[in-house]
From TrEMBL:
Keyword terms of this UniProt record: ATP-binding, Nucleotide-binding
InterPro entries in the record: P-loop_NTPase (IPR027417)
Domain of life: Bacteria
Protein name (database record): ABC transporter ATP-binding protein
Gene Ontology MF term list: ATP binding
């Protein structure tokens, strides 16, 4: 969670799901949807 600013640069690294939740708050709605789709 300390790399909450890297999520934008490495969304695939946060595909785990844990950081994804924190990222969703920082990432735009459209970006969030795209990331969520990958996570399943």
């Amino acid at each position: 969670m300390e790399v909450d600013h890297v999520d934008l640069a490495y969304p695939h690294k946060h595909a785990d799901g844990t950081a994804l939740r924190d990222v969703s708050l920082s990432v735009p709605a459209r970006e969030h949807t795209a990331v969520i789709g990958r996570s399943g």
